[in-house]
Design goal:
943 residues, alpha/beta, ten-stranded mixed beta sheet, five-stranded parallel beta sheet, 35 helices, 16% strand, RNA-binding
Length: 943
RNA sequence: GCGGGAGUUGCCUAGCCAGGUCAUGGCGCAGGGCUUAGGACCCUGUGGGUUAGUCCCGUCGAGGGUUCAAAUCCCUCCUCCCGCACCA
């Protein structure tokens, strides 16, 4: 009978829910296990990538549950931040890709309307996500669902920030934020929720070099990321077609491009735009270069990007391809200079000043690379970009400052950079300037700039004492994979203060003591497993947001103060406190690799800061991604075909779960391949039919092989124990799923036919397999006559394993393959197969050899009378043993046991090879092949 | 740059931390079985050689080294991927 996963899966999901298997209540009599995954934000339907981690979580939860733990496995929604806002905006704008996506996932017209507001999006997915989890067979405590923008959660976040503040871990200081000149703060990130252009822009801190004009007190200001190259400056570049402004910055007057002038007003304190400057009036004049204190000429160039920087560029032709090519263009085409009344002869006199010695290049690498790539002129942008990359990375990493660099001569470039920067700023010859690496435009169409915010709130992750405590705790945690365990202390070290609030429009909790700020999404998701204890009470209406005062939460979470006087019954407060102490700490937090430097470090640190040591987390499990073709799965790249509501209509959930657990290690990225899922589906079909048919057709007949079956599957389960503890699901499944399937097939092939034996073996396998592919296991469990829910049953007990029976069957299997090999080589079908059982003395020798080191074997064996009396034959066998030391069988049967095992297998062999099978003792035959017999590997003679 | 990950046989993947019994499993391909046929399924093979099986040679990005023994440990190099913060 064929197995229909779709109806079966729904049936059992319903049964599990009705039985309340996921509902977690404290039970002091049972050990507890608290695990959760990094909760998702409402950015769309789940796709096959999300479900990887959720499946692992469920597998672990199920295993722990079956192993007798009281498991708390709750779920939540991370609604804070941009995603819901961005989602709603697209729906409201009737973005065609979005509407198509919603339709493909089966959203009704009516529901689409609800998705036009961020709150609507959150509400929708707060219902949708649990549905999708359930459709994947995930047994969680859905009654504890929490959401980061619900009032109870917000109360909890307020509490957390009050605690951080009390501990002195919140600080205010200036910050350079991305800012739309019209709408205020915006997020610049690849999702481009707030912006319409420039999602990949990076915020960079430049050094602004000040060049005093020779004939005035004003400064031309150029920005650079390579301040150490000031020693090679030969001239300044400005764009003759650009618009420039005079700007008063404090007591100085700067000349920069118009765009930069505006930017300055946002990031410097005392700035005033004074008026326009015609660049043509500046061309040909000279200005004093900082660092080298020499006048250099101002020349025209056409490669300047006025959107980035100040529109003024200092020229270092030795190490900047743009600058070199700019000069070369002027040398070759003096008419450009005459246009602006500049004497070409003056420009011809400019000499490139070598400043950096880079291995593999001359002292003017820019020239080398420009010529190597044969860059035509300054408009050859593509090649120039490449040249820039080569020169910069080589120069920066391997270069050394040369004798033209004053006191920095001999210093590696990467070291000189910081020192030169400091010196220039301290002497007042330079300043800092923040800019975005490319143009960024807000959704409203206005420009996005960097604005200095004076009172930005930070979480002080730089605090050394906090770091040390966190690192020490991280070392005591169980963190998988091991490489991440090793790097966690480094990651914590690398962590700097994190801006934890923002202004502007997105979802989140207001900072309790400074209401103009909204707490940022990563920062409100650090201590949140606590909410999974409280949400049981808030969702039931027993604990209301207004009860969740600082004092009550202090009592519940820190044990401070009294259970009384909080507006809820004392008994309830005590109950919640007890429940918190029961479940906490978190045993395992599961998340994707993107959280290695995002969520997990702050998760550890916030627990360490706020909660008592006995409540600090114990484990982290990081898994890698399921990727689409050529990278991350996204909605725009045909994401709908891999979204969960769609794919579960087509593929069985167990097959997908098996795919996650078996196709690759959790610790590598894996490209999603539906064909492979289909294969797994077929394996499951096969498993189902093999198991059910074997059971339904079996009779009462008892055979040797019955004992073998139960032993064999028990051994598999026992052998996979270690892999299970390491969450190496692939290895577990190799044994328990694929291995057991082979065993069942072998049992059938060998004529096994006993209902009770099949049932006993199957039950063991199903118990061990249920966490991975629960639906099909549950179905078979009932088909073989059980009425309980398998998912609520216990992990299989491993009965004693009959090693001899296992060894005997392995011998038969190997023998069959040997016979096959010989037939292949001979090329003809035998009528008769004679098997010779190795004599007892070879067994004695083998056991003895096992105890000896390879060098002693021959000598040691020849001391045995049983071997010595065999003469040459004995030596030959001893040599054989030496050679095969590593592959000797673990279990060796006696001669008679082996003979009887072969005899009982002769019926099978005879059928398999369509030949008469005869078993003889080697010593009783004078057939020349008989001498080849070794224990557990009979000699074979075909005729 | 800083931090992290990875290069395996036609393809995907396992093995690497704890060196030897081992290049694993799947896909694809080939042969056979079953079938009216096709598919599915089952068996066998799939680097090369091989005298009837325990054999020989080759192979885990490249090159060195350690070792009786290296995909695995060490060094150098090459290539690819990811994150770098108010973004989940």
């Amino acid at each position: 009978m064929a197995y229909d996963p779709f109806s079966v899966e729904r049936k059992w999901q319903k049964a599990w829910e009705e039985a309340g298997l996921g509902k977690a209540e404290p039970d002091p009599g049972k050990p507890k296990f608290f695990l959760h995954f990094a909760y998702p934000g409402p950015s769309g339907f789940f796709h096959v990538g999300h479900m990887r981690g959720y499946t692992y979580s469920d597998v672990i939860a199920r295993i722990k549950r079956m192993q007798g733990y009281n498991v708390l496995f709750p779920v939540g929604i991370h609604a804070t931040g941009n995603p819901a806002v961005g989602f709603a905006t697209k729906v409201k704008k009737k973005d065609p890709v979005m509407l198509e996506y919603l339709k493909e996932n089966g959203v009704s017209e009516q529901d689409i309307q609800k998705l036009e507001t961020p709150e609507g999006v959150v509400d929708f997915f707060a219902e949708e996500y649990p549905r999708e989890w359930k459709s994947f067979g995930i047994i969680a405590d859905y009654g504890r669902l929490t959401c980061t923008i619900w009032p109870d959660y917000q109360k909890f976040i307020e509490w957390q920030f009050k605690k951080l503040n009390e501990l002195g871990l919140l600080v205010q200081k200036p910050y350079y934020a991305t800012f739309c000149v019209r709408c205020g703060p915006v997020a610049v990130d690849p999702s481009e929720t707030d912006i319409s252009k420039g999602g990949n822009a990076r915020k960079e801190e430049y050094v602004a070099l000040k060049f005093k004009l020779e004939d005035s007190d004003e400064y031309l200001v150029a920005v650079t990321l390579r301040p150490e190259t000031v020693y090679g400056q030969t001239n300044l570049w400005i764009d003759p077609e650009g618009e420039y402004s005079r700007v008063r910055v404090g007591s100085e007057v700067w000349v920069v491009c118009k765009q930069a002038a505006e930017k300055l007003t946002y990031q410097k304190d005392d700035v005033e735009i004074l008026g326009d400057v015609d660049p043509k009036d500046l061309l040909g004049k000279k200005a004093i270069a900082p660092g080298i204190h020499k006048p250099i000429p101002i020349l025209p160039a056409h490669f300047i990007d006025l959107e980035v920087g100040t529109g003024v560029v200092t020229s270092v032709p030795s190490d900047a391809p743009d600058d070199y090519i700019g000069l070369r263009d002027l040398w070759e085409n003096p008419s450009e200079l005459e246009k602006y009344g500049i004497d070409p002869e003056e420009v011809k006199k400019i000499k490139v000043i070598p400043i950096i010695k880079t291995p593999g290049y001359s002292d003017t690498p820019a020239k080398d690379v420009v010529e190597e790539l044969s860059v035509k002129n300054q408009f050859d942008r593509e090649k120039l970009e490449e040249a820039k990359k080569i020169v910069y990375s080589k120069g920066f990493h391997t270069g050394v400052m040369n004798e033209n660099c004053g006191k920095y001569a001999g210093m590696p470039v990467n070291k000189a950079k910081e020192l030169v920067k400091q010196e220039l700023i301290e002497s007042g010859e330079a300043d800092t300037f923040w800019d975005l690496s490319e143009e960024v435009v807000c959704r409203c169409g206005s420009r996005v700039v960097i604005k200095k915010v004076d009172d930005q709130w930070f979480i002080k992750y730089s605090d050394p004492e906090w770091k040390e405590k966190s690192k020490a705790h991280a070392r005591s945690m169980r963190i998988l994979p091991p490489e991440y365990y090793e790097s966690m202390p480094q990651v914590i070290d690398w962590y700097d203060d994190r801006a934890c609030t923002r202004m502007g429009t997105w979802l989140g909790t207001k900072l309790p003591f400074d209401q103009k700020w909204i707490i940022e999404p990563i920062s409100d998701s650090t201590l949140y497993p606590v909410m999974y204890v409280l949400s049981k009470y808030t969702n039931a209406g027993k604990l209301k947001p207004e009860h969740m005062t600082e004092e009550l939460l202090d009592y519940l979470l820190l044990g401070k103060g009294s259970p009384e006087g909080h507006g809820i019954p004392k008994e309830l407060a005590e109950e919640i406190r007890r429940e918190f102490e029961y479940w906490y700490p978190v045993d395992l937090n599961i998340g994707g690799k993107e959280h290695k430097t995002v969520h997990f470090p702050v998760y550890v640190m916030n627990h360490v800061a706020v909660l008592k040591p006995e409540h600090w987390p114990k484990g982290i499990f990081v898994h890698w991604w399921i990727t689409g073709k050529g990278g991350k799965i996204s909605k725009s790249k045909g994401g709908a075909s891999t979204s969960i509501p769609v794919i579960t209509k087509r593929r069985s959930v167990d097959a997908l779960r098996l795919y996650y657990c078996h196709s690759a290690s959790p610790f590598v990225d894996s490209e999603f391949d539906e064909g492979t899922v289909e294969q797994y589906e077929e394996h499951l079909q096969k498993f189902y039919s093999l198991a059910t048919e074997l059971y339904s057709k079996a009779g009462e007949e008892e055979k040797e092989i019955d004992k073998w079956l139960e032993s064999r599957v028990s051994k598999r389960i026992a052998d996979s124990k270690e892999s299970l503890e390491e969450y190496n699901f692939k290895r577990v499944l190799d044994q328990v799923f694929f291995g057991s399937m082979q065993d069942l097939a072998w049992y059938q092939k060998r004529g096994g036919n006993n209902k009770q034996a099949v049932k006993r073996a199957l039950e063991k396998v199903l118990r061990a397999l249920c966490p991975f592919v629960p639906h099909v296991c549950e179905e078979i469990w009932h088909e073989i006559g059980n009425t309980s829910l398998l998912s609520a049953e216990s992990w299989p007990e491993v009965t004693q394993v009959d090693e001899k029976a296992i060894a005997a069957e392995e011998m038969v299997q190997n023998l069959a393959s040997d016979i096959r090999e010989i037939i292949r080589l001979v090329g003809k079908k035998p009528a008769r197969i004679v098997l010779f059982v190795a004599p007892e003395w070879k067994r004695i020798a083998l056991e003895k050899a096992r105890e000896l080191s390879p060098k002693e074997v021959i000598k040691g064996l020849m001391q045995l009378p049983e071997v010595r009396e065999k003469g040459k034959e004995g030596v030959k066998y001893a040599q054989f043993l030496v050679k095969h030391m590593k592959e000797l069988p673990d279990t060796v049967l006696s001669r008679d046991e082996e003979k009887s095992a072969l005899e009982s297998a002769s019926e099978y062999l005879s059928k398999e090879f369509d030949a008469e099978v005869l078993v003889q003792l080697a010593e009783e035959s004078d057939n020349p092949k008989a001498g080849n017999a070794v224990p557990m590997k009979p000699a074979v003679f075909l005729e």
